[in-house]
Specification:
The complex is a heterodimer.
Chain A: H1 8-12, H2 16-36, E1 40-42, E2 45-47, H3 53-60, H4 62-95, H5 98-112, H6 116-121, H7 123-127, H8 132-139, H9 154-178, H10 182-190, H11 195-206, H12 208-223, H13 227-233, H14 240-249, H15 254-275, H16 281-285
Antiparallel strand pairs in A: 1-2
Helix pairs in contact in A: 4-9, 4-12, 9-12, 9-13, 10-11, 12-15, 14-15
Chain B: H1 2-10, H2 19-51, H3 68-75, H4 77-107, H5 115-127, H6 130-143, H7 150-175, H8 179-187, H9 192-221, H10 236-246, H11 252-273
Helix pairs in contact in B: 2-11, 4-7, 4-9, 4-10, 5-7, 7-9, 8-9, 9-11, 10-11
Classes of the chains: A mainly alpha, B mainly alpha.
Chain lengths: 290, 278
C-alpha cells in the first residue's frame, strides 16, 4: 500500500522563499518603477504628484520617438540578419553525429560563456584604425590609408549584436532540427521530392518553433541593448537603452528614465505577444548549459 | 515515435535519392560553418595576440611578445580587488540563488495555489531588458536609501539575476525524478529530511553543482544590471568598463583574457559535470 504521508502541502512551502524573493526584488521594484514614471523631478527633488508629463514628453519630443523607432528597426534588422546567419549553422550542427557533434557544440558554446563586455570590447581592436581588418585591407592593397567607417556606425552595432546574441538563435533552431524525424526526409526523397522541396515543405516548417523562439529572444535582447551601442555605436548608433541610461548617469531625471523604461518594456512585451506565443521560452534561457 | 526521436540525434541525414545534390549541400554547409566559426574565434584570437603584444597602443602591428600586461594586471591593487570582489560576489550570490532555486524546485513538485503565476514571475528578471533592470534597482534601492555597494545592492541584484536561470536548470532534473524511490523510503519510516539527504541529494548533486557553477558565471560576467547600483566599489566587468570608457590602456586585452579564462573554465567544469541526456 502506498503511504499517503508523502510530504505534500508541507513540501510546497519550500517554494515560499523563492516566491518572496521574487516578489520583493522583481515584482515590487518593477511596480515601483511604473509608479515613479508618473512622478516628476523638480529642483526641490521628487514630486510624487500623479502626472502624465513624462509620457507626454516622450510622445511629443521627436528625439525620443525617433530613437524608439530606430531601436525597433535596428532590433528587427539584427533579428533577421542573425536568423539568416544562424540557420545554416544550426542545420550543420543537427546533421553531425557522435564526437564531431559534441566538439562542434562545445566550440559554439565557449565564446558565449564569457562576459559580453569582453565580447563587445573585442571588436574595437578588430575594426579600429590600427585594427586587424584595416591592417589586412592595407596589406592586400584594397585601401592605402586606414579607414574609420568600420567602427561607430549602425552597421557596427548590428555586427556586435549578432556576435553577442547569435547563440540564442542557433540553439533553439538546432534543438528543433535535431528532434526532426529523419524518416520524414527519407520518405520525401522516396516520394520524389527534390532537396529544395524537402527543405521548404518539411524541414523549414518543422523548425519554425525554434525559429520563432530564437527570433523573439534576439529581438528582446537587441531592443534592450546598452553595452554594444555604447561601445561600438558612437553617436550614429545610439539606441533606446542609452537614452534610458543617460537619465540616470547624466541628467539625473529618474521619473523620465522610469517612463522611458516602461515604454521599452511595453515594446518588448508587444513583440513577444505578436510572435512569441508559440515559442517555448524556458528552453532557450538555460540552453547554454545543455 | 519515441525511438525515432532517440535516433534523430545519432543518425546523420541520409538520402539516397539525390546523392550529388547531397554532396554539394554538405560541402557548402561545412564551408559556411567554417566561416562562422572563424567569425566567432578570430576576434578572440586577436585579443589573445594583443594581450602579449609589446606595444603601448592596442592594435597592430605586432611588436613582439611580452608578459608585462599580465604582470601588470596581476599586480595592480585595483584590478586584484575587482577580481576578488567578482569571485566573492559570484560565490555568495550563486550559493544563495542555487539554494533558493533548489527549494523552489522542490516545492514545485507539489501543487499549490498560484503556481502557474509564480512560474511566469520566475521569468520576469530575464525578460526585463538589462538596462531597465538596472534602472529598476537604482530607483528602488535609491528611494529606500539602501546604501549602494557590493554586499548590499549588488548582491541582491546578482541573486535576483541568477535565480531564474538556476531554477530553470534545476527544475527539470527534479521534475523527472522517480517519486517511487522517495515513497518507498517514507514507507520504511524515513523522515523527509532523511529522504532528502539520503535519496534526493545524492542523485541530483551533479545537477546542483552544475547549477551553482552556471549561476557563478552569470554573476561573474554580469555588468549592465550592476554598474548603476554598485556605488564606488568595482567588480571586474564594471572595472573593465570604466577603463574602456576612460582610455584605451594597453593592458586591457590582458584584462579581457583573464575575465574570459575564468568564466570559460568554470563553465567547462559545469559542462563536464552536467549529465548528458544522450
Amino acid at each position: 500500500m502506498r503511504s499517503p504521508a508523502v510530504p505534500g502541502s508541507r513540501q510546497a512551502l519550500l517554494a515560499l522563499p523563492g516566491a518572496l524573493w521574487l516578489l520583493t526584488f522583481a515584482v515590487l521594484p518593477l511596480g515601483f518603477l511604473v509608479v515613479m514614471s508618473f512622478w516628476t523631478t523638480t529642483i526641490f527633488g521628487l514630486s510624487t504628484e500623479f502626472t502624465l508629463d513624462n509620457y507626454a514628453t516622450i510622445f511629443s519630443d521627436s528625439v525620443y520617438l525617433t530613437i524608439l523607432a530606430k531601436t525597433i528597426r535596428m532590433a528587427l534588422i539584427t533579428t533577421v540578419l542573425t536568423l539568416l546567419f544562424s540557420y545554416p549553422v544550426a542545420y550543420f550542427l543537427a546533421g553531425l553525429s557522435g564526437r564531431s557533434k559534441a566538439v562542434c557544440l562545445l566550440l559554439l558554446f565557449m565564446p558565449f560563456w564569457s562576459s559580453y563586455v569582453v565580447r563587445t570590447f573585442l571588436w574595437l581592436p578588430m575594426l579600429g584604425r590600427n585594427g586587424l581588418l584595416n591592417t589586412l585591407l592595407m596589406k592586400i592593397g584594397a585601401i592605402d590609408e586606414p579607414i574609420d567607417v568600420l567602427l561607430f556606425s549602425e552597421g557596427t552595432v548590428h555586427l556586435g549584436l549578432i556576435y553577442v546574441y547569435s547563440l540564442f538563435m542557433i540553439l533553439p533552431i538546432y534543438l528543433s532540427l535535431d528532434r526532426l524525424d529523419q524518416r520524414l526526409i527519407e520518405a520525401a526523397a522516396d516520394l520524389g521530392a527534390g532537396p529544395f522541396n524537402t527543405f521548404r515543405r518539411i524541414v523549414l516548417p518543422l523548425s519554425m518553433p525554434g525559429v520563432l523562439s530564437g527570433s523573439v529572444m534576439v529581438f528582446l535582447l537587441a531592443c534592450g541593448a546598452y553595452v554594444t551601442p555604447q561601445l561600438l555605436g558612437g553617436t550614429a548608433g545610439v539606441m533606446f537603452g542609452n537614452i534610458i541610461a543617460a537619465q540616470y548617469l547624466n541628467t539625473n531625471n529618474w521619473p523620465l528614465g522610469a517612463a522611458l523604461s516602461v515604454v521599452l518594456v511595453l515594446v518588448v512585451l508587444a513583440g513577444m505577444f505578436l510572435v512569441g506565443r508559440k515559442a517555448k521560452m524556458e528552453e532557450i534561457f538555460v540552453g547554454g548549459q545543455h | 515515435m519515441s525511438d525515432a526521436v532517440l535516433q534523430a540525434g545519432t543518425r546523420p541525414a541520409r538520402s539516397f535519392a539525390w546523392p550529388r545534390a547531397e554532396r554539394l549541400r554538405k560541402g557548402l554547409l561545412c564551408a559556411y560553418a567554417g566561416l562562422f566559426f572563424l567569425f566567432l574565434y578570430a576576434p578572440i584570437g586577436l585579443l589573445l595576440v594583443l594581450s602579449v603584444n609589446d606595444s603601448e597602443v592596442i592594435g597592430l602591428p605586432f611588436k613582439g611578445t611580452t608578459s608585462r600586461w599580465y604582470a601588470y594586471v596581476l599586480t595592480t591593487p585595483e584590478l586584484i580587488r575587482a577580481l576578488a570582489n567578482s569571485f566573492a560576489l559570484g560565490f555568495v550570490s550563486a550559493g544563495i540563488a542555487t539554494a533558493i532555486a533548489l527549494m523552489m524546485a522542490m516545492g514545485f513538485r507539489r501543487e499549490f495555489p498560484l503556481k502557474g503565476l509564480l512560474m511566469k514571475i520566475v521569468l520576469l528578471p530575464i525578460l526585463i531588458p538589462g538596462i531597465v533592470g538596472s534602472a529598476v534597482f537604482l530607483v528602488f534601492f535609491g528611494y529606500l536609501e539602501i546604501p549602494f555597494g557590493l554586499w548590499t545592492t549588488a548582491l541582491m541584484v546578482h541573486i535576483t539575476w541568477a535565480l531564474p536561470f538556476a531554477f530553470l536548470t534545476i527544475f527539470p532534473r527534479l521534475h523527472g525524478f522517480d517519486r517511487g524511490l522517495e515513497e518507498a523510503a517514507m514507507d520504511l519510516g524515513a523522515t523527509p529530511i532523511v529522504v532528502f539527504r539520503r535519496i534526493l541529494l545524492p542523485i541530483i548533486r551533479p545537477g546542483i553543482v552544475a547549477t551553482f557553477l552556471f549561476a557563478f558565471t552569470l554573476s561573474f560576467d554580469e555588468f549592465v544590471r550592476t554598474f548603476l547600483v554598485i556605488g564606488t566599489q568595482r567588480t571586474i566587468p564594471v572595472h573593465l568598463w570604466t577603463l574602456i570608457i576612460d582610455q584605451m590602456a594597453p593592458f586591457l586585452p590582458a584584462v579581457g583574457v583573464v575575465i574570459m579564462a575564468v568564466s570559460v573554465s568554470v563553465s567547462l567544469i559545469g559542462f563536464a559535470l552536467t549529465p548528458k541526456e544522450k
